[in-house]
Amino acid sequence: MTKNQPLTEGIYYILLSLVTPNHGYGIIQKTLELTGGRLELGAGTLYGAINNLLDKGWITLYSEEKESRKKKEYHITAAGREALYEEMERLQELLDNGRRLTREV
Amino acid sequence: MIRFRWYYDKEKETIWLNQMAHEGWAMVHFFLGFYWFERCRPGEYLYQIDLFFQLAAKNCSFISQAEYVNLIEETGAEYIGRWGWYRFFRRRAELGGFALYTDVDSQAEQYRRYLRFFRTLGILAAGICLYEICCCYTIGNQSGSGRLFFLAAVVVVLLIAGVIWGMYFRIRRKIKKLEQELL
Questions:
Q1: Do A70 and B62 touch (CB under 8 A)?
Q2: How many structural domains compose chain B?
Q3: CA nearest to A15, candidates A50, A40, A41, A63
Q4: Is A57 an interface residue toward B (CB < 8 Å)?
């Protein structure tokens, strides 16, 4: 499997928020909650990211309520999970190396 | 209160609208360079502008623009109106900072969209200009006023093309700057 580029913080949290199905504004709220209010995704950033992730096949449309357009829900795919795990491993490596080398000094 | 301003740069326009809101004037309507303002508490609102291009909507085909507007509204913002490709939004300042693009990647991507759009417009304008110059030559000396008309048209389109290409290079500089930030 080809290695992906490191994910941006936003993409990482969007994927994490979609481990359980969620809608657009739900992703913003979940990310705020997970980061203790530090990261508030802008609507434009999220809109572009959802389009890109759908295009890549990392997330998929989960449900659509016909009466209200805003309640479109998305869900992470197997490919998306794989990208997420790959990123978690990369982050783990960063952290391990950082901890190990700063302790040695 | 109505003010007339002509902006090519949406960033400068946003700064101006926020400055006006800071002074107690909230923009409520826009038409062809005219901005309508109403009194508000100083600093009550924060403004943002986004450009929606159907033409350049590469990778934006999955979610409709109406859904995007809905999403912005869900974050507590208010959709004020549109003009051409422009969409105006405002949010109460008490809800915190208001930004549509919150990381460098998406800011750069947004400018790349604008760049594709302005390139298409710029090529179109250059094409029209060339066509008019050809018309000028074919009319030749038979009709003085006809030639003058086309010459005037050439000048007008050249000016428009100049503005478009000016925007193009300005946006390109912005992308370069953002890409440097990413390093």
A1: no
A2: 2
A3: A50
A4: no
Range of the domain at B25: 2-95
Helix (H, G, I), strand (E, B) or coil at B107: helix
Residues 45-64 of B with CB under 8 A from A: 50, 59-64
Confidence band for B86, pLDDT divided at 50, 70 and 90: confident
The structural domain count of chain A equals 1
Q: What confidence score (pLDDT) does residue B143 get?
A: 63
Nearest to A47 among B71, B77, B105 (CB): B71
For the record, the structure tokens of B55 come out as 């033409």
Residues of A within 8 A of B63 (CB-CB) are 47, 50-51, 54, 72
Q: Which residues in A lie closer than 8 A to residue B101 (C-beta atoms)?
A: 42, 44-45
List, for residues B42-77, the tens digit of each pLDDT value.
999 999 999 877 544 454 556 777 888 889 999 999
A to B CB pairs, distance under 8 Å = 75
Does A53 map to a domain?
yes
Residue of B23, B46, B28 lying closest to B38 (CA atoms)? B28
Label the pairing between strands A73-76 and A22-23. antiparallel
Q: Is the pTM of this model over 0.90?
A: no
pLDDT higher than threshold 60 for residue B36: yes
How far from chain centre, in Å, is Cα B72? 18
Do residue B71 and residue A24 have CB atoms under 8 angstroms apart?
yes
**CATH code where residue B120 lies:** 1.10.287
A1 domain residue, yes or no: no
B129 min Cα distance to partner chain A (Å): 35
Strand pairing of B34-39 and B25-31?
antiparallel
Tell me what the mean pLDDT of segment A45-67 comes to. Answer: 86
